Amino acid sequence: MHIHQQPTTPFDDQKPGTAGLRKKVAAIAQPHYLENFVEAVFRNVPELTGGRLVIGGDGRYHNDVAIQTIVAMALAHGVQHILIARQGWLSTPAASHLIRARGADGGFVLTASHNPAGPEGDFGIKFNIRGGGQAPSSLTDAIYETSRTLDSYRIADIAPVAIDEVGARELEDGARIDVVDGVADYAALMQQLFDFDAIRDWLSQGHRIIFDAMHAVTGPYARRILVEQLGAPEAAVRNAEPLTDFGGGHPDPNLIYAADLVDEMMGDAPADLAAASDGDGDRNMILGPGLFLSPGDSLAMLAAHLDRLPGYQDGLAGVARSMPTSRALDTVAAARGIDCYETPTGWKYFCNLLDAGRLTLCGEESFGTSSSHVREKDGLWAVLAWMNILAVTDQTLPELARAHWARYGRHYYQRHDYEDLDAEIAERVISELRGRLESLPGQSFEGLEVTAADDFAYTDPIDGSRAEAQGLRVVFGDEARVVLRLSGTGTGAATLRLYLERFVPPGSEMPDALEQLLPVAEAVTRLRAISGRKRPDVVT
Ligand code: G1P
Ligand code: ZN
Predict the structure, then answer these.
(1) Do residue 240 and residue 354 come from a single domain?
(2) Are 156 and 206 in the same domain?
(3) Residue 173 and residue 159 share a domain
């Protein structure tokens, strides 16, 4: 095998965001662009030399090209064992599990999550470390630093590897490439965590499920598990064929992009549970007849019920949510006497706590939920957890939600996204509020008094690492919260996210709780006044 030291020049924009490096396909496909980033990873993860590497992704356009590039570079860097998912199809949680289960030294996950795919769309590359978690900031910072000074990369001259069928290939220098079934290990793990017999019975009693894979990577997973293993009818899995452009859609499971499914469930409700996942299979949306279960409620309710399921019978070690996520979780944790951690946005912040055994369940408002079984959020896991809970409680999802609110009270919650903002204007909204934060405590807005206001900073309890400037939060005691932060996953202009939360204690209802909070949020943040926008682009 001939190894080539290819001269290159650095790019100055390879800083990974909330979840890896995300760029337009056109940017990624520039000569040397992907290679430079991959080289920067190899230089900062020396254990890959002589080690084992996992490669897969969400099946989007350019995945095939990127897989071959990474294989050639991995061999040039002395990786001894490469595991590639068949067709390249590997959901983000399945990638995390494969890295863990096979003792790999890391993995490349090729995904831009739900961002549109295709030649004009987005592409993304994420490096996950040993143990299956996303690279921590210390590593992504080091990768970025390396990328800024690179003058060459190592790549092997090899013919493209066939990845259509499962199989093994030994190379002359002792290295080995395995094309593996990306679904099998994951499906086996789900079988350990959940009571498949109970779910099968529940389905055979006539209960119905709809799962929308949105033409992204979860199709093969849902077919194998829901249809083949649990006996749901074929039609239960919609849009099951992964397409390189996601069928032109936007596989983000929320009220906007899965609107048809939401409408069906708010109308005749053809199923007891309807769910959708995103491009790379880490997000989930849960719907019951007439009910959209908000991610914060789903997380809190899972915390209340999870220990009834086989994989969680020892109880929950602790729970965590990202800072902007609804505090509904905190009320359950307090009632159960378990720790509840508040971390910055991004799954990587849960990983140290998970590794240390302090967490069993964690989640984010952005339709992400998972447990200690992997180091990523896991869409299908959440769906199976809910099917299992419905099966063992023999209640409907709306009944369970009503009972939950009656016991713990209800956190009304919304996220408002202001997209395509001029970066300077978005920055000004943030910096002006940052400048006013100190003056806010004690002030009242529409009868709500600010009890605390800060720019969220987090010290990791395990390794002491510090993350600053993680979002501005204005707290009105237990009653309400307004949070504002800049998105870290975009590939173009800036997006501001405004998070609204209003708590209503058990026994009362306030359907217009968030409408009432809106003027308070504007008075506090002056978001609309400064940006000139009249309304958000997306409300979830
Ligand atoms: C968004 C979500 C965040 C999630 C991330 C990756 O990041 O808000 O919760 O972890 O996508 O899926 P953001 O664009 O807000 O930085
Ligand atoms: Zn995703």
Answers:
(1) yes
(2) no
(3) yes
Claim to verify: residue 34 and residue 47 sit in the same structural domain: yes
Which position has the token pair 């405590």?
Answer: 441
Confirm whether 431 is a catalytic residue.
Answer: no
- Which ligand 1 atom is at minimum distance from the Cα of 325? 9
Arithmetic mean of pLDDT, 404-433: 97
DSSP secondary-structure letter at 401?
A: H
Q: What is the pLDDT of residues 312-338, one digit of tens each?
A: 999 999 999 999 999 999 999 999 999
List the one residue out of 78, 236, 71, 242 whose CA is nearest residue 158: 71
Q: Which helix (H) or strand (E) holds 216?
A: none
| Residue 346 Cβ < 6 Å to ligand 1 | yes
DSSP letters for 496-533? EEEEEEEEE-TT---TTHHHHHHHHHHHHH-HHHHH--
Q: How confident is the model at residue 262 (pLDDT cuts 50, 70, 90)?
A: very high
Task: Considering only CA atoms, give the Rg of the chain.
Answer: 23
Give the C-alpha separation, 304 to 34, whole Å.
Answer: 44
In angstroms, rounded to a whole number, what is the distance separating the alpha carbons of residues 465 and 137?
Answer: 9
Say if residue 349 is in the same domain as residue 318.
yes
Domain match, 261 and 157 both: no
Domain count, the chain: 3
CATH no. for residue 362? 3.40.120.10
CB 437 within 8 A of CB 517: no
CATH number for the domain spanning 434: value is 3.30.310.50
- Per-residue pLDDT tens for 482-491? 999 999 877 6
Distance (Å, whole) CA 359 – CA 452: 27
Contacts of 55 (CB under 8 A, 6+ apart): 67, 70, 71, 74, 82, 83, 84, 85, 88, 90, 107, 108, 110
Task: Provide the residue range defining the domain that includes 335.
Answer: 185-408
| Whether residue 169 is found in the same domain as residue 207 | no
Domain boundary pick from 357, 392, 408 = 408
Q: Which of 250, 362, 364, 414 to mutate to test the pocket of ligand 1 (most atoms within 8 A of CB)?
A: 364
Q: pLDDT grade, residue 150 (50/70/90)?
A: very high
Whether the model clears a pTM of 0.85, i.e. scores above it, the answer is yes
The residues, any chain, with a CB within 8 Å of residue 407's CB and separated by 6 or more, are 506
Question: What is the spatial distance between Cα 276 and Cα 211, in angstroms, rounded to a whole number?
Answer: 5
| Percentage of the chain exceeding pLDDT 90 | 94
Query: Are residue 170 and residue 204 in the same domain, yes or no?
Result: no
Q: How far is residue 540's CA from residue 295's CA, in Å, rounded to a whole number? A: 10
Helix and strand totals (H; E) in the chain = 17, 28
Measured from the CB, is residue 113 less than 6 Å from ligand 1? yes
Point out the domain boundary residue: 408, 441, 469.
Answer: 408
